[in-house]
Design the sequence.
């Protein structure tokens, strides 16, 4: 190749400039963020508006329960849960992959040096050994004429954002998971308290039946019925204690601690938490903006759209510039004097001619994957709407049922007292006492479980509405160097 003043011919520069001008024009579809149709208001909720103060409350909704133990557990989980570390590592992986793909936009340059010892033999048979020094620089650059690399970068950027949304979703789900487990623990503690109180009452009744039998006022049947009732109630305690220990172990796990970590803090049982106020959750459009799983699905859809463009670019020719600069000398200092320098510049183009439809099938496959991602996104939106509506209905139902159960418990307490008094006075049989005690314990347990269901429904509602982003923000601040 001819050279002028050590530079490539003018037509080479012109070709390179023209190809560079085309670079960045990407084939394939340009992504448009979908706008799913959602209702204007919640069908089961009569307070569609949300103010700034309530928006802040939704961000860290668990504080509405005014429970310092719950707040502490959530802070521990935010700081140390293994799922958080896993999500952070996935964000790091996505960032690293983006760096790999972004580097494809630039030329690749490599250098090589070599020392060879060569033997030469003349006509007389005399041989001579001498050193030969070689050095060279190679460079190659594939021009992104049809935007394949650009689409790869778009996909990688969208994947980073999707993994960041996944990370935020992990944190909001973690906070809700801790709250659910905490409510389960307090519910088991309450059920244990009620069961032990019932055992105490039934022990007194058992003593009463024995006294009345010894006095000849009743038969041994009352004693055995009372004993059966007492032992049946007492038998519930080991199962409740087992479930309580397992739930505390779950809380320790969520907080990044070994089993028994919660027990070591020696926290005394308290009542099942109930939020101090009802919280407006905004309109469905607000939920779409807050839900991280929807954001993740939308970013995955954007990434797949870019992959369609990447596959489409493979149908078009590719252009590559390859150059090398080398030097060869019998001594090291001669490598750099310019007398033995050689250069080479190659322009190449390659285009698919026949591949049995493989490339077009690949484009069709990426389109199908895009349609799958779109279906996943639409399903995620519909599921989010369903979760909010279901949580609203569950909360209202539990709140209404709580009032009725409380009235039933109050009546059952009086009925149990009256049945025992009548039995002591000989005005009624022991069956009334048994029925009253069993009914009272059953209703008390139902009330405790309903309080648990009411709080769980509120937690579900806060989570479904997209609350809890403050947990993700706080953990993001703690791990900023990792993200």
Sequence:
């Amino acid at each position: 190749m001819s050279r002028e003043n050590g530079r490539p011919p003018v037509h080479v520069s012109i070709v390179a400039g023209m190809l560079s001008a085309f670079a960045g024009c990407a084939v394939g579809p340009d992504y448009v963020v979908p706008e799913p149709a959602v209702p204007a208001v919640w069908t089961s909720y009569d307070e569609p508006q949300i103010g700034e103060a309530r928006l802040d409350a939704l961000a860290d909704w668990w504080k509405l329960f005014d429970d310092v133990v719950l707040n502490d557990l959530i802070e521990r989980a935010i700081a140390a849960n293994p799922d958080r570390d896993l999500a952070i590592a996935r964000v790091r992986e996505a960032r690293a992959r983006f760096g790999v793909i972004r580097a494809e936009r630039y030329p690749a340059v490599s250098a090589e040096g070599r020392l060879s010892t060569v033997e030469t033999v003349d006509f007389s048979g005399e041989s001579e050994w001498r050193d030969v020094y070689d050095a060279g620089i190679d460079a190659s650059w594939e021009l992104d004429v049809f935007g394949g690399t650009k689409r790869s970068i778009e996909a990688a950027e969208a994947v980073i954002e999707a993994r960041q949304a996944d990370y935020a979703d992990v944190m909001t789900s973690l906070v809700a998971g801790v709250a659910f487990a905490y409510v389960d623990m307090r519910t088991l503690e309450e059920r244990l308290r009620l069961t032990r109180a019932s055992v105490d009452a039934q022990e007194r009744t058992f003593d009463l039946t024995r006294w009345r039998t010894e006095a000849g006022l009743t038969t041994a049947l009352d004693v055995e019925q009372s004993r059966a009732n007492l032992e049946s109630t007492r038998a519930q305690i080991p199962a409740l204690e087992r479930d309580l220990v397992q739930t505390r172990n779950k809380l320790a796990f969520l907080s990044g601690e070994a089993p028994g970590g919660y027990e070591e803090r020696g926290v005394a049982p308290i009542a099942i938490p109930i939020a101090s106020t009802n919280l407006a959750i905004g309109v469905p459009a607000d939920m779409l903006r807050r839900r991280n799983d929807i954001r993740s699905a939308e970013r995955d859809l954007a990434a797949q759209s870019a992959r369609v463009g990447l596959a489409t670019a493979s149908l078009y020719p590719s252009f590559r510039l390859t150059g090398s600069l080398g030097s060869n000398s019998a001594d090291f200092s001669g490598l750099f004097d310019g007398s033995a320098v050689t250069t080479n510049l190659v322009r190449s183009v390659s285009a698919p001619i026949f591949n049995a439809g493989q490339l077009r099938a690949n484009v069709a496959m990426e389109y199908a994957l895009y349609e799958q991602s779109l279906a996943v996104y639409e399903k995620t939106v519909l599921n989010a709407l369903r979760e909010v509506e279901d949580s609203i209905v569950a909360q209202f139902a539990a709140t209404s049922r709580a009032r009725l159960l409380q009235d039933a418990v109050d009546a059952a307490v009086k009925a149990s007292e009256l049945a025992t008094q009548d039995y002591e006075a000989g005005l009624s049989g022991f069956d009334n006492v048994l029925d009253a005690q069993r009914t009272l314990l059953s209703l008390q347990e139902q009330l405790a479980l309903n309080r648990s269901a009411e709080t769980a429904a509120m937690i579900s509602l806060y989570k479904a509405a997209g609350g809890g982003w403050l947990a993700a923000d706080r953990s993001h601040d703690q791990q900023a160097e990792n993200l």
Strands lie at 108-121, 127-143, 318-329, 341-350. Residues 347 and 462 are 61 Å apart (CA to CA). The chain has 13 helices and four strands. Residues 148-214 form the longest helix (67 residues).
